[in-house]
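A further point concerns the way the authors explain their paired sequence and structure data. An entry of this sort, consisting of the sequence and the corresponding C-alpha cells, reads as follows:
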Amino acid sequence: MRQALYQVDAFTREVFSGNPAAVCPLERWLPEATMQSIAAENNLSETAFFVRKGDGYHLRWFTPAVEVDLCGHATLASAWVLFNKLGHADDSVTFHTLSGKLEVVRQGDLLVMDFPARPANPVEPCAGLLEALGGTPEAVLAARDHLVVYATAAEVRELQPDIERLQGADIYAAIATAPGEGDYDCVSRFFAPAQGVPEDPVTGSAHCTIVPYWAERLGKSTIRAYQASLRGGELICELQGDRVAIAGNCAFYMQGTIEI
C-alpha cells in the first residue's frame, strides 16, 4: 500500500526551525498498530493522521511511542496541508479529536488554532522532578503537564535535564518557563521522555497551560511566547476564557509516498 506523507515545520517561517510534524491524510483508518509504527519510523515528535468526518476531519496524533490527547504543532501542520496541498477552500477547518472539537482559521499566512485552556495549580514537586530538571525554580504548578517556573530566560535556556531521571518521575511532561526577553512575554522548554519525546522543539499543547499562567501573572490576555529549544519557535497566543487561541506560521519541507 502506498500512502502520501507530508512533513511541515510548524511555528516558524523557515525550514530547519520550528517543530517538524509528519502528516498522513487517510481515506479510512489504518490499524492503530500500523499508525504507531509509522510514527516510530518517522521518529518525529508527532505524526498526525486524519480522515474526513462530515464537514470536518477526525484527527489523531502519535509520538514514536504513544498516541496523545492533544498536539499543537501537528494540528497546525495538518491544517496547512489541507489549505495548501489538498484544496481545502474554506478559511477554517474543524478537527474532531480526543480533546474535543478544534478549529483552525487561516488569516493570511498565519494559522490560528482554538484550543482548550489547561490552567495549572500549585503543587508539591514529585520526587526527582527538580533534581532531573536542574536550576533553581521559583514555583511548581501542574495541569496535565507540570509547569516549573524559573526567574530568567537564561536559566531556562541553560538547563541540561537528566532525561533518564526525568523519565522516571511521576509526571506526564515538564514545562520549564520564565519571563521572556525582547519582544516575548515568556520563554519555555518542554520535556516528555515518558511519552517518547525527550525534548519537543515547539509545543502548542503546552501553551494551553503556559498562557493562562502568564496572562494572570502579567495582567494581559495576549502573550507572545518563544520556545527556546535548539530549533526554536514563536507562538502568538490569546487567553479567551476557557480557550486559548494559538497562532503560528508553517514552512513546507517535504512531500513523499511511504510503502506499508
About this structure: The chain has a mean pLDDT of 97. DSSP finds six helices and 18 strands in the chain.
